[in-house]
Input
Amino acid sequence: MASSIFDEGHRRLVELLIDARKKSGLKQAELGRRVGRSQSFISLIERSQRRVDVVEFIALSRAMDEDVEVIFKALLQSQATSD
Output
């Protein structure tokens, strides 16, 4: 099985997180500060070079003042349409 970091589901998650960050008006550095990480940490995620776990997903969503459930539902919907 191929690593899921490079699969379509992960790419879609990254797209949703990037869209949410831009919508919130945050730069990578500010988002990193809000979650106690560096700008390069956010960049690695956004370039799909680092996998996002559930706890990080929640922290990132909250740091962007986004509803975790809304982003997760969008991910689930995109998965349902790609099956």
